[in-house]
Amino acid sequence: IKSLIQKSKIEYKKEKVIKIREKNQKVVLQTLKPNNEKNEFTCDYLFLGCGAVSTFKLIKRSLENFDKRLTLKIQKKIFFPIKFRKFRAFEEKLFNIFPVFQINLENTKFGSVYSQISNFNITLLNNFFINISNIKSRIFLLKFLKNYGYSHFLFGSEFANEFNFNEDGSANVYEKKVDLKSALSNFKGIFDKNFLNNQIRHLNIPFKRGKLIGSHFGAAFPMRESKKNFFDSDLYGRISNFKKISIIDSSIFPKLPAKPPTLTIMANSLRIVDKVFKNKFFHSLNLIFSIKDIKLILIVIY
Question: pLDDT value at position 284?
């Protein structure tokens, strides 16, 4: 990116986008500079991928007829303590900051669950036991918990909570009541003694997290092959009456997956950009055929 900026292929602007609109086959962006001075500039096409929450807020500020009933989905998250039974040389992983295992559980009738299993490494101990400053106490905890960890469960759209924002920026949360015991009965294999050859033993003691504590957000403007509603997105990520603004983050997912959606977002973004270029949605056709004439604008939304 630094090289592209130096070669004038990218115009870098550290400004906050306030509103977006289309005018005369152009996209008009209204921004705030770091000194709160308003600015306005145009581009031929806008690929909007600033994250589901920021995209939601920006669209809400930009459209007068925004549907207040629209909500964002957020993954429901719970934790299970686990015991490592046959895991060898575990003390060598005390400084490991990555998950030891990852599990994908799918039941097409009931939904999907994704889990990351981590050990109680030093980083996690600092997070969970922030009030313990005594070195001897920390060493004792490390030795005591070296055969334990936690299983970090994420649920898909079938279990997701939903939320939107008031005018003052506060959130309204609509919690989807889920009987965890009933939900997990569909994936009861994780509590089987032979699960993963008896290396990992899930303890059936679920810890629920808060209503707005999740890893991923999305599914506010579901993509459909044939748009049914004004705020559905088409196959190019365009909502409402926009013709030259494509959303390329998880806002346009029809459902929120249990798994981390990063690679899916990237693949879908690449597909949309490729389709937009091939279908010549740009006002200036020379932008399609000559890369040297394309002016890319990178905006940091803070």
Answer: 46
* Residue 65 DSSP symbol: T
Please give the DSSP secondary-structure letter assigned to residue 119. E
Instruction: For residue 60, count other CB atoms closer than 10 A to its CB.
Output: 16
How many residues appear in the chain?
302
d(CA 244, CA 15): 21
Can you give the pLDDT at residue 154?
Answer: 87
Closest CA to 218 of 57, 51, 61, 46: 51
Q: By CB neighbour count within 10 A (0-12 exposed, 13-18 middle, 19+ buried), where does 226 fall? A: exposed
Question: Which residues are 28's β-sheet partners?
Answer: 21, 42
pTM of the model: 0.78
Q: Find out whether 272 and 252 touch, Cβ atoms under 8 Å.
A: no
Residue 288 has what pLDDT?
A: 36
The pLDDT value recorded for residue 153 is 84
